[in-house]
């Protein structure tokens, strides 16, 4: 039986990204290195057609404008109608009122399969008091696993919260994925590309929880291996892209989920 990474490369999913102006090129190159096929498209005139044709749609609010928010709602509904997974990356959700309201509009307008965020963005979505810092995780106190599970239950989706250790929750089960390297937080777009990588794995796998856990493990492994070549941000970047192309199923360890104990 072939593994999920092999399956993904054979299927070469078309990943429709509605993304920010900072990371579009990095996201496209990372998806290509992984073995997926990226397409960036956010014009309202074409997003429904693109989202229906693509294998998944990834919505990223990093440099959102009102017109794009409306186009994202159209794309998300079209993806839902075509049975394709939608991933939301709520970049900087806690930074401004516009971003908070955009996230709640998107969550209300469509079925989102996965929210992939950092701790600060999770806090903003859950309404937990937090010191936001632009698009970075910021500072605060929160039981990440409990809050991720709560958000997953509320919105009926998977929630992946990344950082030194990643947490994936579906409201019933939780998995923690360690590894990677701190240099991953010193390049821009690591989270944005990961959200798109999760979309590619969701499109390739039949079990969404397992697909996202595998995507997180893949990304941690690529980051860890690249950091062995260079842990300086500039030279880490190309090494990271290379490792995404080089990794194989046998290099991945995907931990088993734990059942949530609820009061
Ligand atoms: N201190 C760290 N140590 C190891 N891996 C990290 C660290 N910080 C971030 N990562 C990894 O970097 C990737 C992007 O996560 P993160 O930095 O949380 O996203 P974002 O860029 O959206 O804030 C994830 O794979 C995460 O596991
Ligand atoms: C710096 C910046 N500003 C708006 S979007 C963006 C990129 C954020 O990327 P990531 O969340 O992956 O670090
Ligand atoms: Mg981010």
UniProtKB/TrEMBL annotation:
<keyword id="KW-0067">ATP-binding</keyword>
<comment type="function">
    <text>Catalyzes the phosphorylation of the hydroxyl group of 4-methyl-5-beta-hydroxyethylthiazole (THZ).</text>
</comment>
<feature type="binding site">
    <location>
        <position position="162"/>
    </location>
    <ligand>
        <name>ATP</name>
    </ligand>
</feature>
<keyword id="KW-0547">Nucleotide-binding</keyword>
<keyword id="KW-0418">Kinase</keyword>
<keyword id="KW-0784">Thiamine biosynthesis</keyword>
<feature type="binding site">
    <location>
        <position position="40"/>
    </location>
    <ligand>
        <name>substrate</name>
    </ligand>
</feature>
<feature type="binding site">
    <location>
        <position position="116"/>
    </location>
    <ligand>
        <name>ATP</name>
    </ligand>
</feature>
<dbReference type="InterPro" id="IPR029056">
    <property type="entry name" value="Ribokinase-like"/>
</dbReference>
<comment type="similarity">
    <text>Belongs to the Thz kinase family.</text>
</comment>
<keyword id="KW-0479">Metal-binding</keyword>
<dbReference type="Pfam" id="PF02110">
    <property type="entry name" value="HK"/>
</dbReference>
<keyword id="KW-0808">Transferase</keyword>
<dbReference type="GO" id="GO:0004417">
    <property type="term" value="F:hydroxyethylthiazole kinase activity"/>
</dbReference>
<keyword id="KW-0460">Magnesium</keyword>
<dbReference type="InterPro" id="IPR000417">
    <property type="entry name" value="Hyethyz_kinase"/>
</dbReference>
<feature type="binding site">
    <location>
        <position position="189"/>
    </location>
    <ligand>
        <name>substrate</name>
    </ligand>
</feature>
<comment type="pathway">
    <text>Cofactor biosynthesis; thiamine diphosphate biosynthesis; 4-methyl-5-(2-phosphoethyl)-thiazole from 5-(2-hydroxyethyl)-4-methylthiazole: step 1/1.</text>
</comment>
<protein>
    <recommendedName>
        <fullName>Hydroxyethylthiazole kinase</fullName>
        <ecNumber>2.7.1.50</ecNumber>
    </recommendedName>
</protein>
């Amino acid at each position: 039986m072939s593994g999920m990474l092999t399956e993904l490369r054979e299927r070469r999913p078309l990943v429709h990204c509605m993304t920010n102006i900072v990371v579009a090129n990095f996201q496209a190159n990372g998806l290509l290195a992984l073995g997926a096929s990226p397409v960036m498209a956010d014009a309202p005139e074409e997003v429904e057609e693109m989202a229906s044709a693509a294998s998944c749609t990834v919505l990223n609010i990093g440099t959102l404008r009102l017109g794009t928010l409306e186009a994202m709602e159209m794309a998300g509904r079209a993806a839902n109608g075509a049975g394709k997974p939608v991933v939301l990356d709520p970049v900087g959700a806690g930074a401004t009122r516009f971003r908070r309201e955009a996230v709640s509009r998107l969550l209300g307008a469509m079925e989102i399969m996965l929210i992939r965020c950092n701790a600060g963005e999770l806090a903003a979505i859950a309404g937990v008091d937090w010191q936001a810092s632009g698009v970075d995780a910021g500072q605060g106190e929160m039981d990440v696993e409990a809050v991720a599970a709560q958000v997953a239950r509320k919105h009926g989706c998977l929630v992946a919260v990344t950082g030194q250790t990643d947490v994936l929750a579906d409201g019933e089960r939780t998995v923690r994925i360690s590894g990677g390297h701190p240099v991953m937080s010193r390049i821009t777009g690591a989270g944005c590309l990961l959200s798109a990588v999760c979309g590619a794995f969701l499109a390739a796998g039949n079990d969404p929880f397992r697909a996202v856990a595998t995507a997180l493990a893949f990304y941690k492994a690529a980051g860890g291996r690249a950091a062995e070549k260079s842990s300086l941000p500039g030279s880490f970047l190309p090494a990271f892209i290379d490792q995404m192309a080089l990794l194989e199923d046998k290099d991945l360890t995907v931990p088993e989920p734990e059942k949530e104990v609820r009061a």
